[in-house]
Amino acid sequence: MLGTILRSHYKIVKVLGIGKSGITYLAIDLDLIDSPLYVVKEIQDGKHQPVLPQLAEKIFEIQGTISHRVGQHPQIPSLVANFEENSRRYLVREYIDGEFLSRELRANSTWSQTQVFDFLMDLVGILSFVHSLKYIHQDVNPHNIIRRSDDGRFNLIGFSSVKDLESTWYNTTDDRHHNLNNPSYIPYEQEQSMSQFNSDIYAVGAIAIQALTGKFPLDRDPDSYEFKWRDDVNINDKLIKIIDRMVRPDYRNRYQSALEILENLQSFALTQIPTNKSHQLKPHLIFGTAACTLLLGFGIAKLLSASTNKPQLSPPKVTVTKTLPATTVSSEVSWKIYTDKIAKIKIKYAANWQMENLHNVVTGENATFISAKQNLADKYRENVSIRVENLMNPQMTLSNYTKSAIAEIKKYDRGAKTIESSSTKLAKKPAILVVYTGKDENLLPIKNLEVWTIDRGKAYIVSYKAEPDRYYQFLETALTMINSFELK
User: Fold this and answer.
1) Per the domain annotation, does 321 fall within a domain?
2) What's the structural domain count of the chain?
3) Torsion angle, CA of 268/274/277/279, rounded to 10 degrees?
4) Residues 85 and 105 in one domain
5) Rounded Cα gap, residues 151 and 135, in angstroms
6) Same structural domain for residues 449 and 389?
7) How far are the Cα atoms of 41, 384, 395, 453 from residue 398, in angstroms, in the given order?
8) Where is the domain boundary, 238, 264, 290?
9) Of 77, 94, 111, which residue constitutes the final position of a domain?
């Protein structure tokens, strides 16, 4: 197979592995001068369960659909192509340059509280997205987790074992055959072919325990079937309780959703902020499931280790909310109100920011609010803008619009890298928040935060753009403006 050229431009350069559902290869694209690497998977029907050609084709179609949908998340490899050639079926995915977690978790090598917190934030955030698509991964283990080389973020792979709860006519897998060589990651209900969403949560919790203790396989109490690990670690009791609840033997006693874990992790992070640091973070201005990622941008990860195991310090009293309180504004900033009676929108903006009415019928841009210059040497002006798009399909869902919007971002800025993609609220309606880096029209580095929602055949997008080094300097003002956005 080495040297084989598929579709006249994907050249196989290396065998990566042989799995239960097929062979994976490393490939390059001969049509590109400086080609990125791709993972090509040759799908095999399986020896133990021979299937009819029509059914095999349907299975391949389902796997392609699953790969495409989950690949919309920035920490899951995106699907580049799926095709059939010479009676063989192939999936082509983005290649993740990094190290498998299985190589990082060596015996007797343990992680700190901060390392485990970052891991949980990444993996639980990914699972929140996967579960929102009604998929259960079923094969979460260190061999299917990669730490990216460029930014250290964790990526989840290995979606050939997915259980699709929306597909009632056919399940591509038998729950029981996954992770048989890694029993510590398998909860009881999955052994009985009754996987739940929180079966994936169990696996992530087990990996966290493995990382903290340096032990594998994990010890269990023979009577309760619970992991025995609490006496082997020296971390905050609150984080212990979160992990403990993730790995309860009975799935009914576990967290029922990944979002619930994210909220608990956020609350835990806030309690770890030393009192003399809390005024700098203003956590009440953070909203949605992106809260922890934004907090991490302010440096909470570094604060975690500094304040671990210090019971004598009373944690600051802070209020954690799922959305920005409508009345929350900084007392140091005066505000003006912008209203567009035609578009039926309203937003609060900083009085020292310049407002520009655009009403661009092509781009849909309605208004832009530009930051005040800090000094004469400033070349870039941070801004918050509003776009109102008339949808071609009035019945378009938020999910479909999000896929289209992210595709547009990648199309016009090939260097765009998504940092965060989460569910939130805009104008009290379900919305999506995306944070990504890229380049502006002058090819200058830029960091973007966009929130969009859909209402009555229109998409409403509020964006904040800033130079990466100055992003957090104006974030509080931008979030206050975004939170104040109203639809009449």
Assistant:
1) no
2) 3
3) 60
4) no
5) 27
6) yes
7) 31, 22, 10, 7
8) 264
9) 94
Q: In angstroms, rounded to a whole number, what is the distance separating the alpha carbons of residues 67 and 83? A: 13
**Helix residue ranges, H only, 89-236:** 101-104, 113-132, 188-191, 197-213
- The CA radius of gyration of the chain, in Å to the nearest whole number, is 24
Mean pLDDT value across the chain: 79
| N-term to C-term CA, the chain | 61
- In order, the DSSP letters of 303-330 are HHHHHTT-TTSPPP-----SS--TT---
- Contact status, residue 298 vs residue 280, Cβ threshold 8 Å: yes
User: For residue 141, is pLDDT > 80?
Assistant: yes
Tell how strand 145-148 and strand 88-94 pair up: unpaired
59, 17: one domain: yes
Domain containing 346: what range? Answer: 335-487
How many percent of the chain have pLDDT more than 90?
42
Q: Distance between CA 145 and CA 157 in Å, rounded?
A: 6
Q: Per mean pLDDT, which range of 131-145, 221-235, 343-357, 431-445 is the poorest? A: 431-445
The answer to whether residues 178 and 222 belong to one domain is yes
202 lies in some domain: yes
Question: Does 419 lie in the same domain as 403?
Answer: yes
Q: Are residues 37 and 159 in the same domain?
A: no
Sheet holding 486-487, edge to edge: 335-340, 345-350, 486-487
Q: 162 lies in a domain?
A: yes
66-70, 139-143, 280-284: the lowest-pLDDT one: 280-284
Interacting residues of 379 by C-beta distance below 8 A, sequence separation 6+: none
Cα separation values, 178 from 77, 134, 172, Å: 21, 19, 12
What region does 87 belong to: left with phi over 0, alpha with psi -120 to 50, or beta? left
Examine the domain organization and report whether 356 and 414 are in the same domain: yes
Same domain, 85 and 120: no
Residue with tokens 């800090």: 374
**27 located within any domain:** yes
For the stretch 278-333, pLDDT in tens is 333 333 223 333 334 434 333 333 334 433 333 332 222 222 233 333 333 344 56
State the CATH number of the domain containing residue 428: 3.40.1000.10
pLDDT digits (tens, 9 = 90+) for 377-386: 455 678 999 9
Structure tokens that stand for 300 in this block = 């909470």
